[in-house]
Amino acid sequence: ALIIGPIPLRDGYTFIGWNIDLPSQMPNDDIELTAEYSINSYKLQYVDYDGNIIQESLHEYGSQISTDVSPSSPERNGYTFSGWSSEIPNLMPMENVVITAEYTVNSYNLQLIDDNGETFYETVLNFGEPLSFLSELETSIPGYDFQRWDTRDETMPSRDLTISPILVEYKDVISNPDNETVYYFASYVINSTNKIVTSSRN
Question: Which of 95, 108, 110, 185 is the one with CA 20 to 30 A from 7?
């Protein structure tokens, strides 16, 4: 049997065989063999920040890539799309191309108001920043005991945030039969709109 040398390599192509079938033995004249190839295709992927594929297409090696293949701008809660990680190549290279969406974090206004609706504290925070520092901020109001700020958010949401205080108003002072003064608290937990949130008597 005839033995042919190493398979010839060609960038961006896959060898698929020779142009003619090899004879079982060498004839009494020259044989010319021409290598044949198929062109390779590679992926052009647009992926989001979390690795999810937004759009994917196949392009032959060396083919011209139209800028029209770009997807529309993706959306991400609390962020603004700022562009893609790289430009589309003019010609498809000999490898997959991955282009990643990039974002800038949004900032939102945080406002704390007192029982009169007046601004007690305000700042600007990035989306997702922790709100744990609120526990260090208290508003002092005569006749009330500050409990906490009226929010369940632990981090800055993707919106402006106005928070009012939850206050406890104390009522009733009663003397017991032993002439010792005992304070019984009928407490009303209210917010800045004077809406009773909870009430109890101890």
Answer: 95
Pairing of strands 41-47, 97-105: parallel
Residue partners of 94: CB distance under 8 A and separation at least 6: 11, 12, 40, 42, 61
Residues of the chain with pLDDT under 70: 1-3, 170-202
| Partners of 45 in beta bridges | 56, 98
- What is the predicted pLDDT for the residue at 74? 96
- Give DSSP secondary structure letters for the chain: -----SPPP-TTEEEEEESSPPPSS--SS-----EEEEE-EEEEEEE-TTS-EEEEEEEETT-B--GGGPPPPP-BTTEEEEEESSPPPSB--SS-EEEEEEEEE-EEEEEEE-TTS-EEEEEEEETT-B-GGGGG-----TTEEEEEES---SB--SS-EEE-EEEEE---EEE-TTS-EEE--EEEEE-TT--EEEEEE-
Token pair in block for residue 16:
């698929």
In angstroms, the CA 100 to CA 83 distance is: 9
Residue whose entry in the numeric block shows the structure tokens 């052009």: 44
Q: Which residue has the tokens 């282009």?
A: 99
The CA-atom distances, in angstroms, between 185 and each of 116, 144, 170, 182, 200 are: 24, 12, 5, 10, 8
Q: What per-residue confidence (pLDDT) applies to 178?
A: 60
